[in-house]
Amino acid sequence: MGDYTDIRTGRHCVFMLHAHLVFITKFRHPVFTGTHLTRLEETMRSVCADLETELAEFNGEATHVHLLVNFPPKIALSKLVNRLKGVSSHRTRQEFPQLSKWTPTCLAANRLYSPRYAVPRIRTITPPPTAATFTHQPSWQ
Residues in domain Transposase IS200-like (predicted)? Predict the structure, then answer.
C-alpha cells in the first residue's frame, strides 16, 4: 500500500503529514538562479530543523520554488509558511543584495515573494489496522 518509514510519533499521536508548498516571486519575476536555489534550500532546511519539521524535497525555477514538508500536527501550516518565507527572504536578500534591485516596487516593499502561497496537496496516511487490533476486542455479551 504505502511506505510507512516516515511515520512520526508525538506524545499522544502518530502522524505523517506532508504538505506540498509553492512560493512564487513577487510579480512572477524570474530572479532565482542555481546559486540562489541552492542557498534557498539550505535556508529552508535550517528553518525546518528549528521547527521540528523535515524538508523532504525541494525544487525550484526562476519564478517559484516547490517544497515537500513533513510537519507535526502541533505546527500550524500558516505559521510554517510564514517562517519559511520570512526567514528565507530575509537571508537571501542579505546574502545576494542584487536581488533587491530587480524591481523598485519590491525594493520599496522589501519583499522577495508574493504574499500568497499555494498548497496543492496535503497528504495524510494512516497505517492499516493490524489483525491484533481485532483479536483483542472485548466481548459485548
Answer: 14-138
